[in-house]
Structure formats: structure tokens, C-alpha cells
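Re: the 289-residue chain
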Amino acid sequence: MHQPAADSIGSKTKTTLRKKWSKEEDEAIIDFYHAQKALASWSDVSDDFWERLHLHLNVILKVSQGKSAATIRKHVLHVLQKKHANPASAKGSRSETESVQFVEQFESTVHSLSTDHVMKLSQILFKEMATRKGFAHYSEEFVANLFASSELLKHAGRSDVVYKLTNAIANRRIDVNKMPFGLIEYQVDFFSATNVHQIRIAPDYRMWLKGMVAQFGTKFLTAFRGPMWDGRSAEERGNPCKAQVNVCAPGTASLLPARKRPAESDATAQVRLTDPLGASINYVTLVVH
């Protein structure tokens, strides 16, 4: 009895197991390209595009169960690209009405997704919205960092300042053009920097500090800031994470105009102050220690 060759059996098995691509899948891929506004080229896409497309087809639409991101990419570049010069020339299936229905369907099924999939979708949607709003430099890790921050604050028994500050700014409950926002901004910038030279002091915070030094002397600033880098090594000085700080603020020298900074530590300098109401204030003498 004739026995088929081993490689022939393997070939037939691979052919049998190879999953065919349906019209629905191809249209879903084209719809995804259109939704991402990736219309010029099938291959000129971001590094994470294929993983997002895989998630879209397998998890959300559930039309390509079991097909990996690499398999989807191969199908797009070897099949769809030969049929259509670019995504713009390919016709998908989704009209505006169908897009609305898709959103509604997504809302009804998202609860069944795993936490990891929901997080991944949140990052994808956040990055897309950030790009559309002109904040393309935002990392998609922002979403994970947001929840990590809130969880850390919750476990520490602290108020969720991330959530509350966002609401306060968005609803204009705090004026971002005057104190105390300048002080808040400096605290956040301080601990976000790797070196103090990266931090800019806002005019409203600078003016407030100058007024406090003029009223109470430079000892105020010493107590206000705390030990900072006293006792730290030369390598650690200037590193915000190594500072022993009460309230983040620049040193006295940073508050003085560059042309009037004293040459010696025990010298004096005159600074012109302007109060918030625009009243005239005479020159005051600051002693720099």
C-alpha cells in the first residue's frame, strides 16, 4: 500500500490548520487603519500598532481569535497591501452609524475584559486623545502612573491630591496665574527634576519669597527651606531626591538679579520689590550669608 511522504503529510497538516481570513476580518483591519488615520501606508505605522490591532481584532471585535500580532502583520503586508496600494484606497465596512454602534457595543462588553486588557485599552485611548489634543509627548504610562499614585496615597491615608488638583485646575477653582499656584508648581517641578538647575521659578512665587525675605530677613528662607543638602556629599548636592526639605524654594542668591548678586557671601545687595497691588516699595537691603 502506498504511503504518502512524511513532508507531504506535514504540508497537508499545516494547510489544514492554517486559519483562513474572512472578509469581516479584512474590513475590520481596514476600519482600524482608517480610525487611526494611518492612510498613507500599510507598513509605515508605530511600533505598537500591530499589538493594538491584535487587541482590537481578538479582544474587542473577537473576529480573529487565536491569530497573533505577527500573523496579522504578515497578512496585512503580504495580502492586503497587494490588493490595495494604501489604506486610503481600501474600503472598510463601518459607516458613522456603525461607529456609534461599535462604541455602544464596546461599552457593554468592556466589563467582561480582564484588568490587564482594560489597562492596555485605557493607555491606547489616552495616547490617542493626547495626540489629538496636541500633547503627543505624553507617555501612555500616564494612566498606570495615575492609578499607582492614587493607590499609594490611599494606603498612606493621604488625600488623593492628584485627583483633587486636576479637578481644581480644570474647574478653575484655583488661579494658575498667582499664588499659591506658583508655590505648588515649584514643589511638583522640584521632585520631578533630576537637578535643581532644571527648575524654573514662577514670577508669583518669586515675588512672594522676595517679600517674605524683605519682611523677615534671610533667616526666614533658611527655616522655610529646611536643611536641604547640608551634610550631603558634593555628588548629592543639587539632586532634589537627596534634599532634606521643608518647603521647596530657591536659595537667596537665586532671588537676586544676576547683575546685583554680591561677590562675597557676607556682602549686601539692594532689590527692588513690587507688591501684588502695584504699590511702590522702596529699595531694601538683603544680607546674603
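Strands lie at 268-271, 284-287.
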